[in-house]
Amino acid sequence: MTSRMFSLLLLVVFLVPLAAQSQNESPCNQGRDPQRDPRNPFAICLPEIGRMDSYQDAVIHLVAPVGDVDHSGTTDFVVNRNSRELLLYKGVMGGVPLPEDGRRVGPTEQNSITAFLASGDWDADGHIDIAVRIQILGDTTGHNSGRDISRVVIFWGNASGNYSLEDTTRLECGAQMWIGPVRGLGADFDSDGVDDLLVGELAGVTDNVVISLPQMMIFKGHSRERWGRKEVERQSDWQYWHPTPDRFDGLAFTDQDHDGLKDIVFARNESAVLGGGLSVLYGRQGALPDTNDVQTISFAPSKGRYALFNDVTGDKIPDLLIGSGRDDFVKVYVGFRGQRLLEQYGSGDEPEDPDAERWWGRPWATIWLPRKINPNWFGDNDRLFDLGDANRDGIGDIFAFSWPYVLVYNGGGRLDSLVDALINITPGNSGLLKRVGDIDGSGLDIIALTTEKGIRFYAPTKEISTFGISRRRPPGTAGVDDPPMNDDAVLMLEARPNPARGELQFSWRGGLLRGAVTISLYDLLGREVACCGGKGEDGRAHCEVGPLPPGTYIAQLRCGERMSTTTIVLR
Predict the structure, then answer these.
(1) Span 46-102, pLDDT tens digits
(2) What is the tens place of the pLDDT at every residue in 419-446?
(3) Of 460, 459, 450, 445, nearest to 52 (Cα)?
């Protein structure tokens, strides 16, 4: 195919969808800049499947999924109403619940606030239990002088999926009353087949005096036995007094090093100043974690502000994502079997090391957020979201925030800096965007967004375009869409620096090239705007791009019948 034919083909492919868009333009495709638009030309809005509007002047905020509490085949979830009540909503086959269908979990006192902590089957009876924090405002009982105090209460599950104050247990913390906890997580932390309960960020009150408590506690679940019943203790079985970071807004349970045992991940994500960090507390077979077996990283070397784990390479091993809205990036640090956190992160900013047979750097990939591509784009935010697989290809995707959108970047071999799908969050609250599971019986992991008018639900879709470059993944991480890494026919084109200004250095790998090499640059309308060349044997070529306007371009290398493409950004 000649360069002219390739240009015409791109022109047709790009202009057809753009022409259709002009007739029926969605909010996610408005205001395109043909030179510097950060969106994939085929980017779509993630489809909305339903809404739960606020009612009776109540304000509802999504809290979390809790599992299938009534064994109906759909996932159920809890919401907070008017910042005080906790309501349980049960999934509906083929639809979403009605706003008035919520059932209260917790007391009815006016001076109390019920907050969700976690769910799990802590007595292994096959029914889902719910842990809540009940805060009593201005308490004056005993020696308390009007301080807000809390209790941690377990609502035990049953076959009906309905919860009652008559079937509860109040857990103890080592003080007369709790302050906090702020966070909770239900999971099998000791791999014995029974769920346990972790609570974090807490203090206590005894005789009106605030006392220090361990910042993490685990209450070990018991098969067919409940805390506070039949002499089963209500105190914690495990304590972690001084975790680092000691305040955390991220809490997860995943097998970071892929050794078959899940690990506790907690992170302090900083939005205002640098100083955040992330720790992994490693799991043990048949025992709760050893607090000495922990690894911690600081975000400062990578200039990051928010982090989470998600498998974006497609090998079922968690990759570390670190983002920064201030510096407009998401960095990806590849996970490997047996590799712990410090090795995965390295120094946070390391080049490739061919001498160590590591052609990839740490990070392996850097995704530039929209404002890096187009300075006039809306402001980027530090927040990343753990929302799973948007395009249903079995590979995790990156979800970042740039007002008024949540941006979706396809994971796998097509991971690049062009936005593949968007969620319009106007009006909305980006801090309340979560996966809620299969709430409608579709088999899909539904995403829920809290807005000022209620909750909107979105579904993953295979309609998300896989447009983009082929990005080489390190050996051992390749997914089904990757070519074999030892195949000489695999040609990988790379450009540095990227983003660039003035000039580019191209290099290529994947077997020896012989003869003339041509590198053509195309804009997003398929027009060839620059061309340079070199010798295949040299392995590199220099290209002047100073006359070109800032924007996103596609570079195509051709050498005989071999061809490779990559995406570049000019500033």
Answers:
(1) 999 999 988 777 777 877 999 999 999 999 999 988 888 999 999 999 999 998 999
(2) 999 998 876 565 578 999 999 999 999 9
(3) 450
| Per-residue pLDDT tens digits for 467-513 | 666 677 887 675 544 444 333 445 778 888 888 888 888 888 765 67
Check pLDDT > 50 for residue 6.
no
Q: What is the separation of C-alpha 30 from the centre of its chain, rounded to a whole number of angstroms? A: 26
Give one DSSP letter per residue of 489-551, joined into a string.
T--EEEEESSSBSSEEEEEEESS---SEEEEEEE-TTS-EEEEEEEEGGG-EEEEE-TTSPSE
Distance CA 564, CA 557 (A): 5
Higher pLDDT, 265 or 500: 265
Most confident range, picked from 213-227, 375-389, 483-497, 530-544 = 213-227
β-sheet bridge partners, residue 199: 184, 217
Two structure tokens written together for 93: 């086959």
CA distance 509 to 493: 7
Radius of gyration of the chain (CA): 26
The pLDDT value given to residue 507: 86
Q: Which residue would you say has higher pLDDT here, 399 or 108?
A: 399
Amino acid at 279: S
How far apart (Å, rounded) are the C-alpha atoms in residues 548 and 523?
Answer: 10
In sequence order, the 6+-apart residues with CB closer than 8 A to the CB of 209 are none
* Structural contact between residues 280 and 297, judged by C-beta atoms closer than 8 angstroms: no
Which region, left, alpha or beta, applies to residue 481 given φ > 0 means left and ψ of -120 to 50 means alpha?
A: alpha
Q: Which of 125, 187, 180, 128 is nearest to 154 (CA)?
A: 128
DSSP 3-state of 177: strand
With a CB cutoff of 8 Å and minimum separation 6, the contacts of 25 are none
Burial bucket for residue 20 (CB in 10 Å: 0-12, 13-18, 19+): exposed
Q: 318 in the Ramachandran plot: left (φ > 0), alpha (ψ -120 to 50) or beta?
A: beta
Of the candidates 511, 420, 538, the one whose C-alpha atom is nearest the C-alpha of residue 519 is 538
Q: How many CB atoms lie within 10 A of CB 232?
A: 13
Check the CA dihedral 105-106-108-113 and report its sign.
negative
The residue behind tokens 């020896």 is: 512
Distance, CA of 368 to CA of 561 (rounded, Å): 32
Confidence category of residue 273, pLDDT binned at 50, 70, 90: low
- Give the DSSP per-residue string, 446-506: EEEEEETTEEEEE---TTS---S------TT---TTSPPTT-TT--EEEEESSSBSSEEEE
SS3 171: strand
Beta strands across the sheet bearing 516-522: 528-535, 516-522, 551-559, 562-570
pTM across the whole model: 0.81
Got the DSSP string for 284-341?
A: BTTBPPPTTSEEEEESGGGT--EEEEE--SSSSSPEEEEEETTTTEEEEE---TT--H
**Are 253 and 282 in contact, with CB atoms under 8 Å apart?**
no
Residues ≥6 apart with Cβ < 8 Å to 201: 180, 181, 182, 183, 215, 247, 248
**Helix H or strand E encompassing 267:** strand 263-268
